[in-house]
Design brief:
By secondary structure, the chain is mainly alpha-helical. Among the domains are: 70 residues, Helicase, Ruva Protein, domain 3 (Orthogonal Bundle), CATH 1.10.8.640; 27 residues. Helix content is 61%, strand content 0%. The N and C termini lie far apart (64 Å).
């Protein structure tokens, strides 16, 4: 019974691994050009690399195979073909999806923590480290008593420690 479960799990794992490998091999490339104009396609891909896929979130629109990413690439292509600039297209997508759609969001009041957060955390960590070092330097070491010294000597000499007096 246990062996059957193990074999079933092993077969399922191998099947999933094979499917994932086939999917990665199939989706390894970027977006397939749709337009006959190579200049337009280069602009679409360049702009799509700066836009975040809202489904995958860790891939650009140019790399993603999600239906929303395909729609966004088509929207970029249509707007660039209509004569709009890259900035106008990005502004349109930001108005529609928010600042999250661009990999480098603008510096403004709603994103100030995103931009300054790492620097603030670094300064706070360095301040805490400096404070800890200062406090550590001010600590006065507690001197050992005679019984503790004798016990330490005995431990260092690998001899049995002397018996401690009962208090």
């Amino acid at each position: 019974m246990l062996a059957e479960r193990f074999l079933h799990s092993l077969r399922t794992g191998v099947l999933l691994l094979a499917c994932c490998a086939a999917g990665v091999a199939h989706a390894a490339g970027e977006a397939v050009p749709v337009s006959d104009d190579p200049v337009l396609e280069a602009r679409v891909l360049a702009l799509s690399h700066n836009l975040r896929c809202l489904v995958c979130q860790n891939e650009s629109v140019a790399e993603s195979r999600a239906p929303l990413a395909v729609d966004m690439r088509n929207q970029v292509r249509e707007q660039l073909a209509a004569g709009k600039s890259e900035k106008e297209v990005v502004d349109f997508l930001v108005a529609r999806f928010g600042d999250f759609v661009v990999f480098t969001p603008p510096f403004k009041a709603s994103t100030v923590l995103l931009w300054l957060g790492p620097a603030i955390l670094l300064v706070a960590a360095l301040g805490a480290f400096a404070l800890r070092l200062r406090r550590r330097q001010q600590e006065v070491p507690v001197p050992l008593g005679e019984a503790e010294r004798a016990r330490a000597r005995a431990l260092l000499e690998a001899a049995p420690p002397p018996e401690e007096p009962h208090k």
